[in-house]
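Moderator note: this is an archived Q&A kept for reference. The question asked for a predicted structure of one protein chain; the sequence and the answer are reproduced below.
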Amino acid sequence: MTDANKPLNQLNDSATLLANELQRLEWDRKKSLEQRAITVITTSGTLVTLIFALTSVISKGRTFANIVRAERIPLQTSLWLFVAASVLALVTNTPLLYRGLRTRYVLSLKEDRDPEVNIVDAQVMVLHSQRVQNSLKSWFLFLAVCAEVAAIFFLAWTAFRILGKA
């Protein structure tokens, strides 16, 4: 290695280290998003069970047909919102959104370029893909949490209306 190439090689080493660290951070972010989505799925399942228990209590005290529309609609709305929250959380955990390097890209790498530059370019491409996918996952998770919060609101509203009549 000549002294003229030394700064370029140091720059390539630094870029490779940076790209590796950024990729590691994106994978950590992915895992964190997916763990939060599992929490949404778990709480939605638990709260759907609560809806069925509430419905069971109501139907034992009086016939289900006696539940007025003002009680039935928010109860059904909360059930559908919990289902939506679970589906959105499952979408958050979809692993198919992540992809590595495409074969076409690897074949297009220029042999006349420094191999380390090709590696850094490839790492940056994968990092960009990871960031885009993590951004999508975070939006799905946000929507799942919003649906769950809305479902809890409708469930509480229905419970207060029903219990207020008891």
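Archived answer notes: The radius of gyration is 26 Å.
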